[in-house]
Design goal:
By secondary structure, the protein is α+β, with helices and mostly antiparallel strands. The protein has a domain of about 170 residues: Jelly Rolls, CATH 2.60.120.1440. About 20% of the residues lie in helices and about 35% in strands. It has a 16-stranded mixed sheet that branches. A hairpin with a 4-residue loop joins strand 9 and strand 10. The termini are far apart.
Length: about 280
Amino acid sequence: MSPPFYRDWWLAAALTSTALPVGIAQAADIPAPVGVVTALSPSSTPADGGNTLHVGSDITPGMRLHTQSDSPLHVLFLDQSALTLGPDSELTIDEFSYDADARQGQIRLGLNKGSLRIVGGHISKNNAAVITTPDATVEVLGGITLVSVSGGGTQSTFLFGQQMRVSNGSGSQTVTRPGFSVRSNSNGPSAPTRMEPQQLTNQLTQLERTQARPNQPPPPPTPPQPLVSLSDRPGSPNLPEQQLAPDRVRTNTDSTQQANPTLVLNTLLNSNSSTIQS
């Protein structure tokens, strides 16, 4: 007769062997994450009634996302594509596949209502990122595009990159010039037209706005004395105790443009170096 501890060991082994295939089968039914939530306002949720999303929540193929009227959502995908889903929007992750070694893959999104901004990653450098709406199919090759869906149709605005192609059953338009927009409805895509700077600014603001959390303390007041010197001259007035390091006290046009979104926006909108294809 076997000692008691041997019987217990074989029983545990048998139970483990029986349960293991079930656990593997359950895991196989869960799609692998293809992205992660990087920022959001308090009320972003999956549209299918799932759990509320948080910063760090996984994004998987087939997931339906829904935002409330005060809650844009930011997602970073495995290929470094970045998605911002605007307030009061619904979107489906229709397809995402990515070979990290080859830096190749496919990305397809379905925007049912609302707005989004997509910034292409490795995938869209070779294969266009595809956004389908009730009125059009928008293909973005190596660039940045805004897409919005309303009762009047789909508006697609090209901001940067190689090209944007908008098509439906009535025709297609291709845009390569930043700041130009195409509106699509049952009559087909319109000819590309320049979007007014204020309209573009309003759309970008909607994508970036956040709602203040309740009971959040106000920001601290501005100090009465400067925190860092604004000059490299020793005789400058109101010098604080700490000055900028010598390598920081210099003028750099490129860094100034990067730090000033208005300059970059104006450069895009006033650029004459690209052409429109239609």
